[in-house]
Fold:
Amino acid sequence: MSSSEENTAPAPAPRPARLTAAAAVCGLEALALVVGGVYLLVMGVLGRPDQPEQAEMGGITLAVLGVIPLLAARGLLLRRSWSRGPALITQIMALPVAWTLLRATGALIPAGIALAVVAVTGLVLIVNPTTTEALGIGPARDA
Structure:
């Protein structure tokens, strides 16, 4: 076997648009969690909340929770099968938060609608057969 035959591996199939969109949704959620966490942390330190310790701890918690969808987004982009689990969990965890926001008043209702739309969109993209097959989870199609 010549060296040219050894180096010619089949080119990987292009990443499906649904997989890229699912990664984008997870990345957007990660960004929102980190920004919200930093905001709470800064307001806890510099602002005058009733309970600064609670604001600071909430900010740290949100920022750390933002790492989960960030890792899931990176894994989805790299087609790692393990990334589907954290991505699904993130979407499922967002639904009760969206429900709580929808039951609130004022500007929280549009935020709840936006979060619900993002979470449902993420769920649909992640459980899509094209996405699962691209991650190597679903049954391979016979060619």
